[in-house]
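Journal club prep — side note

Before the paper discussion, L.F. wants everyone to see what a predicted structure for a comparable chain looks like in token form. Sequence:
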Amino acid sequence: MPLEPLRFAVLGAVRVFRGDAELELGGPQERAFLALLLVGAGRPVAVGEIVEVLWGATPPRSAVNVVRRHVGSLRRLLEPGLAARAEGRWLVRDAGGYRLVTDGDSSDLLRFRALREEGRRIADRSPAQALELLTEALSLWRGPLAVGIPAQARAHPAFDAVDRELPAAVRQAADAALRAGRPDAVLADLRQAAARHPLDEPLQAGLLLALAAAGHRSEALAAYEAVRARLAEELGIDPGAVLRDARDAVLHGVRETAVGPSSNESSGEVTEGAGADGFLADPAHAHTPAHTPAPGPPSPSALPPPAQLPHGIEVFTGRDVELDEAFALSGADGSGPGTVVISAIGGMAGVGKTTLAVHWAHRVADRFPDGQLYVNLRGFDPSGAVLDPGEAVRGFLGALGVPPERVPHGVDAQAALYRSMLAGRRVLVVLDNARDTEQVRPLLPGSPGCLTIVTSRDELAGLVAAHGARSLVLRPFDAVQARAFLGRRLGAKRVAAEPRAADEISELCAGLPLALACVAARAAGHPHFPLAAVAAELREAHGSLDAFVRSDASVDVGTVFSWSSRAVSAAAARLFRLLALHPGPDLSLPAAAALAGLPVRRARPLLAELTGLHLVTEHGPGRYAFHDLLRAHAGELVHERHTGADRAAALNRLYHHYLHTVHAADRLLAPNADPLPPPPAPEGVDPEPLADDDRALAWLTAEHAVLLAVVETAAASGQPVQERLACQLAWSLEPFFDRRGHWHDGLAVQRTALDAARRLADPALEARGLRGLARVEGRLGLHSRSVPRLERALELFTELGDDTGRAHTHRSLGWECDQRGDLPGALRHNRFALGLFRTLGDRAAQASVLNSVGWYHAQLGEYRRALTHCFEALTMLQELGDRYGQAATWDSIAYAHHHLGRHPHALLGYRNALALLRDQGVPYVEADILVRVGDTHLATGDHDGARTAWQQALVLLRRLNHPDAERVEVLLNARDGHAGAV
């Protein structure tokens, strides 16, 4: 009976199959001998070359005899029953050496080369068919070349030459994919090859083009910057023409471009180089974070274009001349701006700059298909909370699809990435309420195609001079415009019936649209009042707003606002005044209630009174804001009618409202951390109810900008009590910033907290401040700063006798060791922490660090010791009822069992972990464990079980739009290509 055909594999592990049965190849030297014959690909391999591969420069005297024994053993393996000294058909003597007789049907390497050659031949006339052939060729690679042979043998040039064929094939496939309009088909292979060959510029160029064509433009630009930096650091050179051309193509939206000069060459020669557990306090269990990582945001192709413009008002009127001028500036013929046009709208407060800008923007939005960006820069906010340009840039980058963790450090780098993101796009940018040119400059697009509208009380002469901006100056309404404005709100008949009264109202309001809107709201609420009576009542009112009114204004506009505020109840008027103390851009109903010292149910109708008269605006569900002119008026009133003690008490209530709510969120997001307990809240202040970590994250997200302002304002108050509250608030925000990747905001907040702690001259606060700042610096890769801070924090905690602080700092130092690959150091620091937590009797922290210690033992190959620690942790976590901690520990236990070869035990551990996680709704961690479940099934030979687990993981990761989905797709594709690989 004839033997079944043989199939040889070297593109991955060295393997031989007869039919479906894998042959046992013997030890590493036998495998190295066969691998050398296979990479020879049908050419004779000299005996001297074989000796060099097997023994290097110092072969034994018996080397040639040993080679002959290997030849005989391999012949008998391939052809059982072959007579002694018979040559057989597979391994023949040739030209003083040995040749393995293989072809494209029996050798994966020869099959790979044949597919590449056929793909090259038809690439120009049929790129889609070429892509299919090249994708099949790449699928034959199941891992690095010749896995399982000694490193000394693997270093031989024969293997290196074949190794270089893979990146060339990937570039060839990328070229075909771009031409066929299917860039996603090769992204996974491109990413892997680019990671293995970071200095191969044509390969990196192919990655850039494929990413951009697949809609991952921000990642493509970030990849270019990474390669550029690496070339400069390692070789001291700039990117070559191929890589620069690819970058330019990404910037200009080119989708089909060859990836390099050798993309379709059949040769494999490629020259590498210029010519060619989650929260910071507990990060050790990296593969199963202590808190669910935020899923990666959708790629820019999956995100809709940003549409951030505020709602325009339906009764816009009175600015026909200015609107015509605005249309002229932006190209009313519909052709759009050929260059970057910046229209700075200057004018006094309340004159309608924002209203005109937003109305204009809505009218031309359809000419900017790539989206509209809007930000209130708060340049003249009476609270002084001017928006930092870096914060504004990061907000825009997020809207454009850049994940927070990929935002570079520093405003200049962030602005450069922002300009790169806008290059080649048509985007409308509205920068509202700018303070000066310096605040605006980082937010300006750098290339044609975008229109930027800037509003400011300042004329922004620097923008006009340096950036070619066109200026549009608004003035107050004249009598005709004001009468039309009132007619739209009160009815044309009512205004026409009393033209003199309407004119007097306009004069008393100084022609300011904001003041006219307040008066119109009051008059509309009393439709039977004559306008003459309204004008008379307004004449008799008194108020003050000198600082925000032009010197040539004929009337004190504060009179209008004072008169409007008289129309509300005394309690609503008091709330109106106290709202001016709030430092953020907007506030919620519970925050307003805290300021006033009222229950939420009593504050709600008071806010309704204020919104009804346009004194406060509800710009989103449950979110309230002032116009800055009204805020200024309220600010004057609160200082006139409330004592310093009253104002301090209101702010104290507000700060405690935020601190206690953030502290509650911190305990939900990081139950094993060591936050400083807040002081008791003043009477009548209650934190917002947060049922679970989802609710905590939602609340923190809504209050993000507010909390930044509160920390800054409290820290700058000069009051020790408030500075201490600012520190506590900053430290309690750590898990939120870490979970969401807002490390740049975290960096600013932690710097503020450390500065405040040092002003307070409190070593305990300084130690916490050093540790908090170090943790976020570590996240940003600033390890040269973070490690010394942690070491200093450890010194302070030691001097203070604060063993809890020491223990948590050791855990952070352990994470730093992990980041630089020092696993023994990471284990050492976590063992220090474990000893301290045991002495302290902190069972929750002890249980958590026990799992981390176990994990590091497992990473070091000490699987039995890992199990000892993890089972101890599991018992404690079960007693504590910490279901998430139990899941993480079962995962560690299963990981150790897997590597001990106890695959049934591993699968049981993973099942326990998954059962606990599925009750808690943490799909990312569930997917991460499912990948390892698949690995264990594969190790047992259960290929169907592996595929099922990986498919389940892929469904979850795709649902989250998480980048790890590509890694799982690679695993699945490798299994799909398993049969052809051998």
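L.F.'s comment for the group: The first helix runs from residue 28 to 40. Keep this in mind when we get to the figures.
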